[in-house]
Amino acid sequence: MPFGGVLLVAAFLTYVLAAGCCFFGSERGRRVAFWLAAVGLACHTVALGLRVLESGRLPIANTYEFLLCFAWATAGSFFVLLRRAGSTPGGAVLALAALFLGVAVFILPASQKEVFFLPPALRSAWLTVHVLTAVLAYAAFAAGAGLAGFSLVRKDEKASRELEELVYRITVFGFAMLSLTIVFGAVWAEQAWGSYWSWDPKETWSLFTWIVYALYLHFRRKRHWKGRISAIVVLLGFVLVLFTFFGVNYLMGGLHSYG
Amino acid sequence: MKSRGRKKELHFPNGALGRGKPERVVPSLLRLSYDFLASLQFGLFLVVIIGLSAAVGSAFQEDFYRSSWFATLLSALFLNLLLCTLKRGSTYLRTRCFGLKQIGVFVLHAGLLFVLAGGFITVAKGERARVPLAEGGEVSLGRFLRAGQDLKLRLEDFAISYHPDGTPAQFTARLALEDRSTTIRGVAAVNHPFYYRGMKFYQYSYRWRVRIEVRSASGVRQVEVEEGDILPVEEAGLHLKVYRYLPNFSPEWGMESKGVRPDNPRLLFSVYRGEERLGVGIAAPGEDVALDGGVSVVFTGVRPVAVLLVKTDPGQPLVLTGGLVFAGGVLMILSSTFYRRTRIQHDEEEGS
User: Fold this and answer.
1) Is A26 contained in some domain?
2) What is the number of other CB atoms lying within 10 angstroms of the CB of residue A61?
């Protein structure tokens, strides 16, 4: 296994351990979790850096590379949210980061992991902005889903309300990023394929995901959806995000077959 | 004040524009339908129906997005969004509520309206056609698009550049357009369309035309066929089915080419007498394939056929503007959320 692969396995293991420590609840457990997650993120970052050196470009061009970045940003969001969410709910976010990294490292076929040159359609400056905003959107939705899932199982009402407010803000951020992803993608599609919208499965499903989050934002603003319902909608939105990513890539194909 | 006074003089009968007191207690049908069409609930309902039908409809009907049912839904959404946005804008004006967030929300929805309006124009007025053109070939664009009247398009050259591992890096079509007496030259490559007179030319895809020489006692004839075509060889009373050109043949890859770069080109073919298939063969360039009666065929090379997508899209500037306006609105809302948060945090810190 190449050195980058070893680092990724190390990052996966430390994320899993850190998530486990988060749920212990003791002060010591939390501190260990923080440092484990930090070591994991450092390994993950170095592995991404090695891939950049090897391929001479950002790792954003296939399912494997996207998953690496997605898991990296999700793990990073643990540190961003630590002060507001606390490390125990943050453990759910770390667990999701570990899951995505695990899928990339252990489940995807070896052919996905080979370094490759960009095909003509992907050789565009739009690739960078389109995929980076998608990474941020997906990571925000993952973090929101992790916290929402945690708030569903938690008994403490007041803490759950605070968490709900945080989930709302994260979702606003994710929604903004998804909106930009779709706009940049449309501008790029017009340059590459001559049509800004082709109702390709990826486009349709990301629009559908966007609509579900738009509903969440509208209904929450009007105070119709609160507490458990809003947490469930955030989780449902994330299930759609995952389907748009995995389901469309592996079941439907289309223009977006690379990831 | 002055303008309000003037408005009073006009005496709107029942306040249909939403100003002044309605005279009747029972709301008019107009008012009711306006309230319904401009409601958030109706808009969200439409959005859900559009989303669901887009996801489900596309699975069952290929042309679903061009159906009148879908167009009706989108038109209704446009109307709802227009009324909602106007209503919200007028509320902001009345209450003098001009925060970054409010402006952002207004701008975002206005952007969506532009996108939808542009989309309608694209569908109504836009033209698009796929134009296959062999290298060196010429075609009248008027055959494909109204906007192409009096224009002749020639493919001067089609080239593929490769990465070091042999995978394609770029497909480039060098074009010449004859507009009456002037000739304009341009290049269309993937991600780099060529513009002329409101038209856009895209390098969309390509295929190969196979060159074959038929040699017999009566002489030599050159033919050019597309992959999948059947070539009658009357000289031998046979048919040649030209299956496929493989630029990089490799036994492990079978009937698939190992890549696009012509490292080991071969032609895959089969020979028929009537309905009966006599055999399948694979020929290298220049290789003499002997058939019956002293007739032989030779695969001499290939000629690329570029498939160009040519389009006019009068709705595009509106869609593009709408997309940018929408993205601007999104960023305004986002920055207002962050600004408010940091201000609250700052206040909290100062307070403590």
Assistant:
1) no
2) 20
Structural domain of residue A124, as residue ranges? 118-259
* pLDDT tens-digit map of B104-120: 999 999 999 999 999 99
Structural domain includes residue A60: no
Interface residues of A toward B, Cβ cutoff 8 Å, are 116-121, 123-124, 169, 172-173, 176, 179-180, 183, 186-187, 190-197, 199, 201, 204-205, 207-208, 211-212, 214-215, 218-219, 222
Give per-residue pLDDT as tens, A158-217: 777 888 889 999 999 999 999 999 999 999 999 999 999 888 888 888 998 999 999 898
Report which secondary-structure segment, H or E, holds B128: strand B127-134
Query: What's the ipTM?
Result: 0.88
Nearest CA in chain A to B161: A120
- With respect to residue A232, please indicate whether it lies within any of the assigned structural domains: yes
Nearest CB partner across the interface for B54, out of A123, A208, A215 = A208
User: What is the distance between the alpha carbons of residues B110 and B280, in angstroms, rounded to a whole number?
Assistant: 62
Judged on CB neighbours under 10 Å (0-12, 13-18, 19+), A110 is: exposed
Give how many domains chain A has, as a whole number.
Answer: 1
Q: Is B5 exposed, middle or buried (0-12, 13-18, 19+ CB in 10 A)?
A: exposed
Nearest to A213 by CA among A242, A238, A244: A238
Has residue A170 been placed in a domain?
yes
Nearest Cα of chain A lies from the Cα of B54 at a distance, in angstroms, of 7
Chain-centre distance for alpha carbon B143:
20
**Contact yes or no for B47 and A214 at CB 8 A:** yes
Are A120 and B119 in contact (CB < 8 Å)? no
